[in-house]
Design a protein that fits this description.
The structure holds 2 protein chains of 2 kinds.
Chain A lengths: L1 H38 L6 E11 L5 E11 L4 E9 L7 E6 L8 E6 L4 E5 L16 H4 L7 E11 L2 E10 L8 E7 L5 E7 L5 E13 L2 E11 L4 E12 L10 H6 L4
Antiparallel strand pairs in A: 1-2, 1-13, 2-3, 3-4, 4-5, 5-6, 7-8, 8-9, 9-10, 10-11, 11-12, 12-13
Chain B lengths: L1 H18 L5 E15 L6 E15 L3 E12 L7 E13 L2 E8 L28 H4 L3 E10 L2 E8 L27 E4 L9 E10 L2 E20 L9 E20 L2 E16 L8 E18 L2 E12 L11 E13 L4 E10 L4 E11 L4 E12 L14 E9 L1
Parallel strand pairs in B: 8-11
Antiparallel strand pairs in B: 1-2, 1-19, 2-3, 3-4, 4-5, 5-6, 6-7, 7-9, 9-10, 10-11, 11-12, 12-13, 13-14, 14-15, 15-16, 16-17, 17-18, 18-19
The chains are: A alpha+beta, B mainly beta.
Chain lengths: 265, 412
Amino acid sequence: MKKYILVLAVFVMVSMGFVTINNETEAEKKGKEIFEKVLAVNDGNTRKSSMTIIKINRRGKKRVEKIVNLVKEGEVEKTLFFTTYPADVRGVGFLSFDYHEDGKDDDRWLYLPATKKTRRISSAASRNEYFLGTDFTYRDAEKPEADEEKWIYVKDVNKEGVYYWEVERYITDGESNYSKMVSLIDQSNHLIIETQYFDKRGELMKSAIASGIKEINGFWTALETHMINHQKNHQTILKTENIEFDIEIDDHFFTVMALENGVID
Amino acid sequence: MMNKLLPLILLLGLSSALFSQDKPKMRFQGFLDSYHALGVENDGDFLSSRSRFRGELLYYTPASKLFFSVNYFQNYIVDDLSEIMIREAYLYHRHKNWSMWLGRQIITFGQSDGLPITDLISPLDLVEFLARDYDDIRMGVDGVRLNYSKNNMNLDMFFVPVSQFNRLPIPNTPWGVDLVDGLTTDDYVNQLPEKNIKNSELGFRSSFYKKGLDFSFTVLHTWDKQALFLFNAPISPIDRPTIDIVYHRLNLASFDFAKPIKKIVLKGEFSYYFDKTYQTNITGNDQFRKTNAINGMLGLDYMPGKEWLFAVQYQNEHILDYSDNYLVKQDNQFGTVLISKKVMRNTLLLSSQAFLRFTEKAAFNRLTIDYTLTNEIHVSTGYDLFIAKKADGLFYQYKDNDEIWVKFKYSF
């Protein structure tokens, strides 16, 4: 009888386990489908925009920086940006070639007008670093790539009549500042609207909310993202202005020569 | 007067032709700063005290650019250094893959930072030695740069009809180098080369920015921008000694590279000097001798993250066909060490920049704390330290020039 109960218990546990595993697989499968939809959001082969970065410290004091940037997608994703404000760093430029290939480091160059020289910089600097003293890491500000994250569907959410998918996101390609991220995806345009970032202890670290959602020339985009660092009590707002998609951008702009010349407007 | 205005008139005339095709935009920018350095070893005298206004005017279209950059200095210690200087005044134009810069411009290239190996066209303003920001130290030259650029390959040609040379500290000022006691500015005779085509400078540089590797080749027919000094003993007891400041040709071929390896960028720069002139301890015609030399640098930039930067460079200039009569050693080693860290969301920069002269067992180190008070205002302070063990070295001249300094800068 004891043996029978033991076998039954094992069977029940395995069954429960199986059901759980099966549930996780379903959630993962749906998460993957949502991830693919997000990845498929078309943001054009080229983009040109201006960005205002507002850094707000714990006392509410604001620092503003402005940049203009150009992006050209392809086998190699080429990015060029310049700081236009404040005046003392105007003209600082950054050029990068992202090769999308495993194990291949990006090429990056930095131009400093004070020294009038371009210097090669390492691309192995972690994407988990905060850029320009903001609350965004390089990874936060980039669109995730297919092999970098695992997405798990949690539930459907209805907020004021807008339907979202809630997903848990886990970084799978190396080190991360986060134990997980929880995002809301707009079911109509597949944009990531909200993300909560949890630290290694599982506590809420940061949250990002996108707003100013607009369709510009057929491309859905969020014109503003507000990141709040709950643990350090400071925040950053990224505002995108004058964005243009799929415009003709000569390859000449993605050269060290263009980086040193500075003017792109 | 007309001679000085003619290049400017030509520049403006050419600009009006280029800018007539597009609707140009204009931007005015610059800064106002004030810098004061107090000596710590000389009864608290100020070693530097100056304010500066820099105005920059940029008039541009997508293909053309007219740029003026002017400094006005008010020096509270050395009257001769209260002056207006045109840093740059050039016209830029691009047509397809070709670019041209015409006029006064600062030309810089190469991988080394602050160690002149190949980057020898734009001279240095050393009136306060190295105790100035980098963009105050480099000076513009009047010339032409032509560039052909394609797929991150640059081919450059530089032509400078009339050479400019390093600006030396003024004697009998806190940064003056007194080669002989009691000499005044009038006792130094600047023997500038004649202004003719034979004395012009010409250079070619090809640069390649490839996957994981940058490299360049350079050939220059230039001048050694650092003068040598010829001492003339007085002929009679009533005469004073004089010093001729003399300049010599320098031809070089160079290779430089930068290679990122994980979080490090390894860089190098190597020049072969043909017939570089060195000073000897022999009087008469043999006071200067020409010989070939190799000048090389290896360095690395390391960015481990969290806004840290470590950068080191080691340079060795090796004289070929050396003889004991030379005033410098056969191998002369230099170096730089930079450590910097940004904190408080990049509003506070802490840095330590050292220039090392191993052969002389000497060093100059600048410690800096820079705080971004507002978007427009920076305040900074620091400490400059000179270490010199041997009496015959350049840094030894400044062994009593340790200073503490403050700087205020408003940018617009």
